[in-house]
User: Fold this.
Amino acid sequence: MSGKLNRVPRLSFTTLVEAPLTVAFDVARSLGRPWPHPLREIESERPWHDVYSAAPGDGWRVLVHTRDFSATGAGTLVHEQVEWVSPLPGVLGGLVDRTLLRGRVVRAMRAHLDAFSAAASRRALDVTQVVGAALVDDRRRVLVAQRGSGPLAGLWEFPGGKVEPGESDLSALVRECSEELGVVVQPEAFLGEVPLDGVVAGGAPGASTLRVWWGRITAGELVAHEHTELRWLGAGDLEDLDWIAADRPLLPAVRTLLARL
Assistant:
């Protein structure tokens, strides 16, 4: 966690939570804010952003608390901003802000964020995640796979699958590529995360996400063990396919990746 003080009555905090976007957002909502006053929702977009305002309290006339959630390879980065309007004008208001309110906000947020981080990490253990691999070759092409069975048969996706209990995301990614494609892969960097609308492994609807890394094949010969077809495609050919809904939002990041390799 880090905190930054500004010249205006505003404080910013950043916390890295070991949980997917949906879990981090839902746990943050369930814990609420550390202000002992009624809150009003101003806007909310799960699992990316929400803004709440607090009723007048000790030291402020208006307090606004904003949270933004972004995906990283290590978990969810949560940026929180607290800003307020003092009920006192001029020099007196500035004195109250410096000597009283800032310290109160910092102490409340530190305790709140410690509890939030721990609760989100625990909740993440109960949610089955899905990982995917955007495998790239030396000709700046990415491997895509066509589903062979089930309700999504015929649609295209990036290879991958569910993370097993006790397994890390990257270990699951390597295992899934070995099982589905018969190859050894080396994950390189995190590419993006997409919330999944449906139920994964009997969990709550909308609790899981698809987390994707790009990587390269380091050994083995490609074999479509679970898919109807495998293709290597350039950036300009990706839009022509009929994609699974969860994978399509990742296409801009994949095109950007191929353009810079």
About this structure: Confidence is low (pLDDT under 50) at residues 1-7.
